[in-house]
Here is the input.
Amino acid sequence: MARESTKSSSPNSPSSLARFLLDLAPLPQDFFLQKTETVARKLLGKVLVRVQSDTVLAGRIVEVEAYLGPDDPASHAFRGLSKRNASMFLQGGTCYVYLSYGVHYCVNVATGRQGVGEAVLLRALEPLAGEGQMRRNRKLRDKNHFGISNGPGKLTQAFSIDLRFDGKRFDREDFKLVDLGESLGDKQVAQSPRIGISKAKERLLRFYDKTSPWVSR
Here is the structure.
């Protein structure tokens, strides 16, 4: 199924795309104050932009998971506020980064008002700009285009996101979420149980673009 809206006025070359993305305003604050499942669903098709040195990295979000705070046994916030999950309880639109199993970082978007403790995990992105730098960040030698950022750990490696980003807002000039005017229709979006959890496995809180080859495997 074709995407419902196109990237109007989108540039034709990688360099002009980078400039175009840098000029875009970040998503407004009220976007992140919606119900967490709504934010998760609407984040599909939005773009993560991060400037690394002089290189613009950008990726279209194709897979996310919602985590619902104290009502969700799979959420880091289920047992309340801690030093590790403090950013999850900040105002919606805050970045929450944690180290998973001591191996790789995961990046989340806090949702709701301060003190709520809900967030959306970014699971997979489609690279739009800065793919060469993403490959260098991941130390990739193979030509597998789809393997660059098709998983939460791969995504943070590709964008060089670590604990330095924990607590930052997604509204900075060099780190933001933007809207290219794309809206995914219901026939393009699928829901499923979340991946790699042991509790609340029955909840359909994973949302993804089922037409995208960049969804995690």
The two ends are 21 Å apart (CA to CA). Confidence is low (pLDDT under 50) at residues 1-9. The chain has four helices and nine strands.
